[in-house]
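#dry-run=false #mode=assembly
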Amino acid sequence: MTSRSILPLSLKDVCFDAGGKQLIKNLSYQFNAGPRSVILGPNGAGKSLLLRLCHRLLEPSQGHIQWHAEAEGKSNAALHQAMVFQRPVMLRRTVAANIEYALSLRGLGKKQRRARTDEVLELTGLVHLASSQARVLSFGEQQKLALARAWALKPQVLFLDEPTASLDPTATHAIEQVIDAIHKSGTRIIMTTHDLTQAQRLADEVLFIHRGRLLESGPASAFFAGPTNQLAQAFLKGELLWWDHPETKIQEN
Amino acid sequence: MNDFSAAISLLISADSDLLMIVGLSLQVSLVAVLVATLLGMPLGAATALYRFPGRKSLVVILNALMGLPPVVVGLIVYLLLSRSGPFGVLGLLFSPSAMIIAQTLLIIPIIAALSRQIVDDLWVEYAEQLVSLGASPFRRMMTLLWDGRFSLLTAVLAGFGRASAEVGAVMIVGGNIDHVTRVMTTSIALEVSKGNLALALGLGMVLITLSLSINAGAFLLKETAQRRQA
Amino acid sequence: MSYFVKFMVFTLIGLSLPGNANSAEYITLASTTSTRDSGLFDDILPLFTKASGLQVRVVAVGTGQAIKLAKNGDADVLFVHHRKSEDAFVAAGYGVTRYDVMYNDFVVVGPANDPASITGIKDVVKAFTKIAQSNAAFVSRGDDSGTNKKERSLWRAAGVDTGRVSGTWYRETGSGMGATLNTASAMNGYALADRGTWLAFKNRGRLKVLVEGDSRLLNPYGAILVNPKHHPHVKAAAGQKLIDWLISKAGQRAIENFKIGGEQLFRGSVR
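#status=ok
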């Protein structure tokens, strides 16, 4: 694993079409090293889509998405990323085996895998479940395991797609704590959420997406104090509807 | 029902001829299932995961071949293995090997088609995560095959059921030769043709019991494996 | 996971592909299901094996299929009962020589109440004519076997076009003697059967032998060695040994000693 940073990640005029509709429209942005980014927006805005485009699970229909490492001719950016989904996907094996599986994909030897697995299990408080079948865990524990698995890979960037959307407040809190720990260990966090309070807790910078357009971005404190974009304002007040509102006009920043 | 009780007493006394027939039936069908799984399962999984020209047609063909008539397979294998055929020089006709070959060909489509569907359904669930983790296409295939092992076991049992129950293929390529290629199903057919219906029925019961035992064994295997994991 | 692998490996080795050879030398005999079903082979072939040390592997199928197997070189000796086909086989060079081995006869079986009134008729063609006129059910093997060919020749002699009436009172099963008799028993219909299969047949229902003894009902068997010139791999020497034994005093005696329920089934042809 190289210690060269794969950031910044630049998006230039990215568009994504599917089913005859343009779901992402001319989106440009640059994720630099450092802050925790939260992509905010109503349902169907294209947040999850944007995340998948960044993580290369999907290819843009137009425009460019490029990691800094790629600009320099290195093609191993994928090795330094990880993603956690809204619903955790666990293999039919033990908790520890799930983590070791991910590590084996990175080519680590048995001893190294064991050591690293024990380490993240310790960090995430899952040691007592190490030999349990991953699939019998509660949803919250499985999501924690998903985070542990991602963390074990020591990613430079961790994408999270609405990681606590299906969890209760206690589990949500536990997950946010792990995310925080991962961030403190040096991983760049890029996540989506539609939960405003979560965004307020976790974000250093905010991207507001609506109908596939990036309408506003900037430091979290400024955004939550008072966004300039009308729709963003409506969203913060909980008044933004996801269907056409005749009085609402889309304004571009 | 003299013959029926004769059949039962054959079983109880573990008549050596009957044991030989049962043993050969198991040998042929189990080896056929093994080979068909080694060939058919990766074929099905690959068809589910890889994209290549003609893939959709292959899916349709595999599904259709599940209904391959055993007697047709037997005929084709006969034509291949006959001394007048391309592989005649191997001298495999009328031997257990020929029967294994025929049954393997018969059940490869079943195992392949069912595996394909199982892996396909799993892929829908696992796709994004496996791609995100960086698994190679081959690695994805192996992972899904292992994760779907319980469903895949059922596919294997389906293949075994088909193999152990068929008579058309083994009759033609085996020749139903006494003490050499006579199996349960061909024995039953023989006794029916001699009019020994009760004996044939008794043998049928043996065959069904055999199949039940094997399936019960597989079920217990699955249960213990699943329980050990809880 | 490794348990599973070990188990599979052991199973594979343990059930390792059985080869097509026993340690004893063997010859493959292509014959008919009716001959096998009579029980003749189980009775006399062990005697041959004792005398010669050679095992005989009998593949019993319909006459047409037996001849095809021999033509393809998948058998060493052909032993069927249809003179015309056998002569054609030898004439075409597939067989070396035809040897007369034995003969038995055919019988006409039918329901005990005999709707066509053929019981005891000495002329089999007359009996067949009466069956056709009565529209009573007649079950044919319809499989091009020796029995089937004999049956069709009798219908021809009776002036009946079996192709035209097939599916009406004339039913073709396309199967062996045993299956055909099963069907006749279930339908309570008439059928032509070789005496051997009939004597050994257990599912008679209400069927009885109604017509027998006509010279046209004689059923001669011939043994032919598959021509090694055509198929070099054929076990010619061993196959000839079997034929020689069948026509020898010992073989002929064994054939005539074979009885079902005290009744002799076959007559030796060698005088």
